[in-house]
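Before surveying the methods themselves, we first show a specimen of the format, giving the amino acid sequence and backbone structure tokens:

:::
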Amino acid sequence: MLTKKQLVLKRFFDLSFSLLILPFVIIPLILLLLIASVNTGSSGIFVQERIGRFGKHFKLFKVRSLKGENHKDALEIQQSETSFGRWIRSSKLDELPQLFNVLKGDMSWVGPRPDVPGYADNLKGEDRIILTVRPGITGPATLKYKDEDAVLLQQTDPNWYNDHVIWPDKVNINKAYIESWSLQKDIYYLFASVFK
């Protein structure tokens, strides 16, 4: 578990980095939201309930990449994705609005990905260490499973595979991340997310 000093350092880095890049991303973000609105026929911003630090619910922001709402599995996502949506999801630019989640204090730049209700909020015992840090835009588990949707589409039972293979592996990866946290590693994961 991170010490109080480490948590303060992590939060200071999150705020500093967010304020540093905000002037450079605000215009591209507005353009992406406008394109998404036209492309999907709905609001360009997508808001979804996720589980945050200490198991608290928060509203996560994304650029909308799909037509319609509440897509529950990889096949539904693939079927409702536009060409713009595929590009913005594969480039991870749909995550840009989460900069404001970081500024609000709901999220961190690096950490366990925030899940929909039914996963992180159901963790037991030592696995609940994952809930002691803010969820992240990126992190070691996110990098390992950057092609998660494609992997799930190859399975005969995607939901079973997610719940019994991917999710337990993510839990172990995120526990190891927290137990050996350092600011240098956070910076590495940020760069790896952009350049790998």
In short: The mean pLDDT is 91. The radius of gyration is 17 Å. Residues 4-40 form the longest helix (37 residues).
